[in-house]
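Researcher: I'm preparing a figure for a lab meeting and need a structural model of a single chain. I don't have an experimental structure, so a prediction will have to do for now. The sequence is pasted below. Please return the structure as C-alpha cells so I can convert it later.
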Amino acid sequence: MFRPGYDDRRERSRQKDLRPEKEKGSGLLELLIAMGLFSILIVGVLYASYESQTKTYEIESRKIDLRRNLQQIMDDIVRELRMAQAITSATASAIQFTSVQDGNTRSFSYSSSEERLTYTNGSTSKTFDGISQFTVTTYPSAANKITIQIQGKTVHRNKTYYQAISSDVTLRNVT
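Model: Understood. Here is the structure written out cell by cell.
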C-alpha cells in the first residue's frame, strides 16, 4: 500500500541494521564456503576427466604401435615373397621358399606356444614377438597367389587388445 512520504527503502535499511551482530556477514561466510565446496567439486571432475583421457590415449597409442608393427612385418613378408623363385613348402603356419636374389632358402614360421614369428634367411634369423596368429593360405588353382594373415596383441593394465592384418600376395617369379 502506498503512503505519501513513506520511503520503503529506509524501512528495509533500518530492519537490516536491527539484526544481531552474529548474523552480520554470515551471508559472505556462507558464500565463501559454498564457493570452496564448488571449486573442490570442479577440481574432482576435471581430474577424473584427465585420468580418463590419459588412459584412452595410452590404450590408443599401444593399438597404433601394434598396427604399425604388424604393417611393417607384413611389408617384410610381402617383399620377400614377391622375390620368391619357388615355394618349397607351405603349411597353415609356415612357408619356405627359394629367393630369386641369391638362391638361398628363406622361411617364415610361427610358434603359437611362444607367440613368435621367425624369419630365417640361411644362417640369419629375425624374430617378431607379440604375434598371436599367423596363417598362410595357398590356392591350388593359382600357384602364384598366397594370402597371409597376421594377428598381434598388446596388453595394457591387464586387458588384451588384438589387431589383425591380411594381404594377398602375387608371387612375381613363380609360374
